[in-house]
Amino acid sequence: MSFVVKKSGWTGVIVRLKQDKNGTSFEYHAFIPSWIVVALFGGLILWVLLRPVGRRLEGEVHQLIDSAAEFK
User: Fold this and answer.
1) φ and ψ of 7, to 5 deg
2) What is the per-residue burial (b if ≥16 Cβ within 10 Å, else e) of 38-59?
3) Which residues contact 3 (CB under 8 A, 6 or more apart)?
4) Is this model's pTM higher than 0.85 or not?
């Protein structure tokens, strides 16, 4: 199961719920949510430029989920 946290067309985070024999965990991956933005500005170049912003958003989402009582 996964869901997307989209800050804008430029930055977002994919959150995956991963279940295995040891329990349940979350995986976080920064990405560019708008395929139009990727097509117009070049995916790899844009990804390199926006990676720091995506990593910060990834950290914010990670902190929010870790601190939420619903996920404990």
Assistant:
1) -85, -40
2) beeeeeeeeeeebeeebeebbe
3) 14, 15
4) no
